[in-house]
Recover the amino acids of this structure.
């Protein structure tokens, strides 16, 4: 079974764990995975604007990234166009859930999710974790519409449809 390797961005020394082995990397550019066949995708987690980072990490073997913050100026439409095999995750503004405004939630999801899903390689998700002050009702509005748009009938939450 293939594994997912996670990589936390931010420090100069990075640690990658695959099965029982640990690799320490002093520089991202020198990153090499010894057994590429043992993993399916390698996900980079980063903060801020990652537009210039994607081509660099893709060249090093990374093929997925999260969370692509909206306010940092990321543009997943542009990244998807120039890096069609790169897996993109996130880019749904967490503030739309914080506000709970149904129009904001609908605009945020409908303007991004359908076109990105259509081209493939996109996992819709918030641009970071859900914030502590988000109400359960607002989260349900967001998740209900997201599940509807993605055609996913799953989910353990009350279905609350935005108007």
């Amino acid at each position: 079974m293939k594994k997912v390797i996670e990589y936390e961005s931010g420090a100069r020394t990075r640690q990658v764990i695959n099965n029982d082995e640990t690799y320490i990397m002093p520089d991202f550019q020198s990153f090499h995975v010894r057994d590429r066949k043992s993993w399916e995708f390698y996900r980079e987690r980063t903060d801020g604007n990652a537009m210039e980072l994607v081509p660099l990490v893709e060249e090093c073997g990374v093929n997925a990234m999260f969370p692509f913050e909206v306010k940092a100026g990321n543009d997943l439409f542009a990244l998807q166009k120039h890096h069609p095999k790169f897996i993109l995750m996130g880019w749904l503004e967490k503030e739309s859930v914080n506000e709970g405004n149904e129009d904001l939630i609908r605009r945020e999801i409908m303007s991004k999710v359908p076109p990105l899903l259509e081209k493939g390689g996109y996992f819709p998700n918030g641009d970071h974790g859900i914030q502590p002050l988000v109400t359960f009702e607002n989260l349900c509005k967001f998740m209900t519409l997201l599940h509807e748009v993605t055609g996913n009938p799953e989910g353990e939450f009350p279905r609350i449809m935005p108007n």
Observations:
- The chain has one domain: 3-150.
